[in-house]
Design a protein that fits this description.
By secondary structure, the chain is α/β, with parallel strands linked by helices. The longest helix has 26 residues. It folds into 2 domains: 208 residues, Nucleotidyltransferase, domain 5 (2-Layer Sandwich), CATH 3.30.420; 184 residues, 2-Layer Sandwich (Nucleotidyltransferase, domain 5). Strands 1, 2, 3, 4, 5, 6 and 12 form a 7-stranded mixed sheet that branches. Strands 9-8-7-10-11 form a 5-stranded mixed sheet, sandwiched between helices. The two termini are 16 Å apart. The protein has 14 helices and 12 strands.
Length: 405
Amino acid sequence: MHKHISKLYQLATKPQRLIIGLMSGTSLDGLDIALCRISGHGTDTDVEVLQFETVPYTVDYRNRVREVFSIREVDLQTVCMLNPWIGLEHGKAINTCLARWGCTAGDIDLVASHGQTIYHAPKHLHRQADYPNSTLQIGDGDHLSHAVGIITCSDFRQKHLAAGGEGAPLAMYGDYLIFSDPEENRILLNIGGIANLTWLPRSLTAGDVISTDVGPGNTIMDAFVQKRFDGRLFDKDSELARKGKVSVPLLAALQENEFFDIAFPKTIGPELFNLDYLESAAIKAGAEDLSAEDRLATLNQFSAAVIVDAILAATRDVDDFSIYSSGGGIHNSLLVENIVRRLPEVSIQTTSALKVNPDAKEAVVFAVLANECVAGEKDYALGHSLANAAAVAQPVTMGKISFPD
């Protein structure tokens, strides 16, 4: 037996594993790195987050990725070169964290890498009948594994696509395994560049779980701030949006898109919700002359509105549910206030209340997916129920394995 296969077998049979989960979202603010101790698998999964850091991206990193990010026509050589380069850059970040945490590569069983999404094209967006749902994450797993000397599990979304899904949101699997509770109906709300949610009914019936993208979180707001306010990457403390006034006509125009009429589950990205989308809505609303602050205030209210509309649609007639939020959007105080105002009777907390750092949550989910990839045993009843909820044809094991040498 090859030594790497033997090692993979040994770590799969261990009672617990140390797994580093990585997440790099559409906001391009940094690489989330979560060191997790995971025991069990499936519904017996138990997760403890031992260390967490967000390693900020340099201006150079962000600029290189933005050359190809969510753009239909790009230089193919640049994409080709960025794929290994991002893997190596993420490897450097892991090695720095390991040194800071007093760990070595030998202490870690697995790395779980989401990679960097550069284009997301579900069929409802590309509308080409001959082509399936598509998404592309770069940051090669072999380069990453070789750079850190640890077995790496990566490229999770492709199997979801192969089984008929849209490749996202994959959070439903980790959310169901980690956060389901027989005493409480829960919404797990993640507000990144794109906002997504998972509905977890207290019945624990996997077939009733809903996980879906809902629309823009921070993506248009961040892009607008970067374009209109020199030196700013985002609206820190909602300082700029608080100076503006919501434009009712612009808000209505922003909400007029057929994406919002598509049934759950569905996915989307900055390929739709971007500055061109804002400009088209402004023209439609006759709001071209709005101040930058007024536009930002309206965008903030737009994100809150689509998030709350989706929550109400997911929960339907259920009125006793709690919301646990995560992602960069929880630090946008005005966005949180706008959501709370629209849901005055609902308990809204961050995932800290569930003992998971809300900034680390997505990285933790990918660590759980890697754990399932190597140690999970297929529960076909659960698998088929979650498959139906995720609109894929069958239960799947996600992730590709890369050995360090």
